Amino acid sequence: MTRKFIETFGIAMVTGVLLVALSACEQPGPAEKAGEKLDNAVEKTGEQLEDAGDSIRDATTPGSN
Description:
The chain has helices at residues 2-26, 30-60.
């Protein structure tokens, strides 16, 4: 009976540790949040550069005025 209890307790402990570890992974940490902000800033900058390039192309293309 003691061996069965130890096995069951061990399985319960491993399951509990895994559940805690997995639930901790769902919440973004400060580094992940900073990375998302950086990604958004880079994407926005790229869009603005593309718009600026389009404006320059339109301004220098003959007959576009």
